[in-house]
# Entry
Amino acid sequence: MSRETVELDFFEMEKENPSKSQFQKLLKQRRTVRGIQSAISKINPQLLKTVIESGTATGSSDGKSPAIGISRDTGVLLPSKKSFSVPSTPKGNQNFVPTFPVVNPNFRPTPESPPETAPLTIFYNGTVSVFDVPRDKAEKIMKLAIDFNTKTVESTETELAVSSSEEKHLLQTLNGGLPMARRKSLLSFLEKRKERYAKFRALLSLGPAQIPVLADYLANILV
Amino acid sequence: MRNGILDRMMSFGISDEALGCVLGYIHDHRDRESVSLVCRRWYEMDSMTRKHITIALCYTTSPASLSRRFPYLESLTLKGKPRAAMFNLIPEDWGGYATPWINEIAETFRCLKSLHFRRMIVKDMDLEVLVRARGYMLQDLKLDKCSGFSTDGLLYVTRSCRSLRTLFLEESTIIEKDGEWLHELALNNTVLETLNFYLTDLTKIKVRDLELIARNSRSLLSMKVSDYEILDLVGFFHAATALNEFGGGSYGLPSGDYSAVAFPQSLHCLGLSYMEKNQMPIVFPFAHLLKKLDLLYAFLDTEDHCQLIHRCPNLEVLETRNVIGDRGLEVLASSCKKLRRLRIERGEDEHGLEDEQGVVSQRGLTALAQGCLELEYLAIYVSDITNAPLESLGTFCKNLSDFRLVLLNREEKITELPLDHGVRALLRGCQKLKRFALYLRPGGLTDVGLSYIGQYSHNVRWMLLGFVGESDAGLLDFSRGCPNLQKLEMRGCVFSEHALAVAVMQLISLRYLWVQGYKVSSTGHDLLTMARPFWNIELIPSRTVFVTDALGNDAVVEHPAHILAYYSLAHPRTDRPKTVIRLYPSSCTNS
# Structure
């Protein structure tokens, strides 16, 4: 699996103050899963858009202190305060724009990754979280980050300003408000089913001979 | 009983013996309550002849009060934790301890033979005490969604209770040490009719013990087991010739030959856990006999549901997930005219893990309303909704006594909201409605709609309202109605503490309130507007809980604050954990 990455000065560390102070406000979020998620969603979307677009022109690994890495195969945003260098592949500077989930709503995962869910990895201030998110939800999250600032002029400091019910329920699983609770018995059943699925996914990697039987089984497990 | 008749009866001087005979035919607890209010003598007669009591919340009275009033009780049902505990919303140590009750039972209730604990904490020691005192007489023991005991406790029961007809452990959390309890049951019991350890994690069960039970207890009617491989139960099915109901097990082998499984001839009620498309045909030969079908934990898609349901014209009870889809509901509506109870639970939200056709909307619900006229219980999770199917339910389903609708968050845009008119039509049309739940989203029901609920829910005793209404005005309007509302649960509503408190004072029959998700203040002071004698107010402030799920992933879960308030004639409880706070005015002793 090729890992093509690009570094972008996402938070425009080299530029003026406004984005910097905004970023620092984000750092004050609690280091909980919810805190991280809400922080990411408050990232200035205009910034994100312009920076990514400018970043593609400049390419990668050019010695600037990069603040973001994007992994193409999984659609990952990697903001980081410290500079780190993620080497690009020998394939060099290609036009990455069509593969960015943020700017390209038709982002397709690589053939090797399963179409149902893909890991969404968030690196934030020294902590790493991985979420298994379906493709369309991942796109929604990215789109929301872009659209967010068009609805609210400035991102607020201490609360997540959810202006419409649309955003509210989209973010429902993320911002923790009052998510719809599941019955214990069904939760346990759905988790068991996921486990079965994961087991057989692992078994699938065993060899081509086993695949037809297992694929057939998988097809049943998926419903 | 009107005054005219009363006078005649009193003047005839009915003897106690005669009265006792008559009371033997009066079972409904509301009729019994009326009897007990007539005069002192009738109160005493009722007390001595009452056979069954259900205590909906174990803290509303004390064991001593119960035994003083109903010393000859034969059957007792006690419930502990709030219903929200079934959704992991209540701390495990909230309360609901069986110990004081069992101690009282052991000491005074000489006639008790039937005991049902629901959502309570029962310890092995409690079971030992119970068995020592009542074991020889115990006929029915139900530990329903309970926790706190192990298989050692069960061993006390099965070793000594030879008269046991019912042993029900469904969905209890049991510490498993071995399978001895089942072995003892197999050896000592010949009158067992119902054995249920469905949805428990018991794995040390020996199949030969199940077979022995089937052979020894010729009247075995109902068996529901944990995840035991079905192919290993062939011998059991062969022996259990009178079996009426079977659930649980696991159709776990994809290449297994399940056609070898011969179900007993009299089987009318079946649960198909983990069954897949390929295995489904084994049910076809007797599908037309089925009255009850449980597909909640099956691996079937929408088409499979259609194929199966189509073959079950005598179906009266169906439980499944929303993978049944609108198409499945249409098949149900046209094939199953005798359907009385339908529960459609929430399946997987993530795409790709459940059939993409598996959405239930106004289309399926309308078909159902027009096709299944005998419906008495309907609980349904929908992805989309309009007013029309609710109006249809009000028009066609006149026997509906329990209706629960939950609107999922899968779709951003719902075809038609608010549901004010539909809800009004449903409540006006379904006069027998006693239990009602409506769980929507902001915009799902306006304040006007909420006032309709107050106005038209004359006979409703229990309600769950989620994300309804727009403001305090709606709640206050609502609470001027609902004359028979005894138990109210609310979630995600925008009401202030003051409005909640005023509403409680206005709901004339209210004796139990549970709320999560409201305008929380830092002190909860406004809630004291509802402070009054015998009204206990408990608060579970918001908590942050660290959990690890079954796959080993850690997560942080935020639990918003809860209010729990209830009438009680007992002293305020002393077994509250640190997470539960009691709210009362400083001037009030409330003893």
